[in-house]
TrEMBL record:
The keyword Iron applies. Belongs to the pirin family. Fe cation binds at residues 58, 60, 102, 104. Residues 9-120 form the Pirin N-terminal domain. PANTHER family: QUERCETIN 2,3-DIOXYGENASE. It comes from Flammeovirga yaeyamensis. Keywords: Iron, Metal-binding. Its cofactor is Fe cation. Transmembrane segments: none annotated. The keyword Iron applies. It comes from the Bacteria. This is Pirin family protein.
Length: 238
């Protein structure tokens, strides 16, 4: 087993006033050659957007882009004709494929929106662009890791063009469990959203991240009040 730990205060940070963002991996003006990605997990941004502000229309291609709101609402509009609002308890996915334009705004005038912006390198290039969103709140049983993303359209949660699985756990009791990886070539990047957890006997606090690979089983001990996201992704970029 190999691990890499990224504490919350070691992340890249930018504050544009309307946008306050922390980057777990190199992004925009933050460049760290030792933190370019974790396997095919290319971007993990922890974004806070002020009331009435947002990202103007901009392009993407050949990337799987996942948004998970943590607080507030996020309005999405794209060149496929979609205009949707996602909120806490939802997950959104966009396969940029051959190319797409989109914008993201906080439609509220009285509160900010907090969300995770996650980019995964796809296993197939130049696919037809696609948009989907689902409510995952009703999938979430407490004190376990609930699947919210997979490679399969018929599974729980959303799907992407990659051999990846995301699980989200919210704990209202002290809990110990084991996570079995779906593929021997994958690793897991665990990101703590709230509270305190121990993963493979390493203590993690709010907004800490831990990458684990070359194993088929990961132990998790979560304290009451913890919330953690497990992102299982291929480690090989090819």
């Amino acid at each position: 087993m190999k691990t890499v730990k990224h504490t919350s205060d070691s992340r890249g940070h930018v504050n544009h006033g309307w946008l306050d963002s922390h980057h777990s991996f190199s992004f925009s003006t933050y460049h760290n050659p030792e933190r370019m990605n974790f396997g095919v997990l290319r971007v993990l941004n922890d974004d806070r957007v002020s009331a009435g502000q947002g990202f103007g229309r901009h392009p993407h291609d050949n990337m799987e882009i996942i948004s998970i709101p943590l607080y507030g609402d996020l309005e999405h509009e794209d060149s496929m004709g979609n205009k949707k609002v996602i909120k806490e308890g939802d997950i959104q996915v966009m396969s940029a494929g051959t190319g797409i334009f989109h914008s993201e705004y906080n439609p509220n005038t009285d509160k900010e929106v907090q969300f995770l912006q996650i980019w995964v390198i796809p296993n197939e290039r130049s696919v037809q662009p696609r948009y989907d969103q689902k409510t995952i709140a009703d999938l979430s049983e407490p004190n376990q890791l609930n699947q919210i993303l997979s490679p399969n359209a018929d599974d729980a949660g959303v799907w992407i063009h990659q051999n990846a699985w995301f699980h989200l756990g919210t704990f209202d009791n002290d809990t110990e469990l084991n996570y079995q990886l779906k593929d021997a070539n994958n690793g897991v990047y665990a990101f703590v959203l709230e509270g305190d957890v121990s993963i493979e006997n390493q203590t993690l606090n709010k907004r800490d991240g831990l990458g684990i690979w070359e194993t088929d089983n990961i132990s998790l001990s979560a304290k009451k009040g913890a919330k953690v996201l497990f992102m299982e992704v291929p480690m090989n970029l090819n």
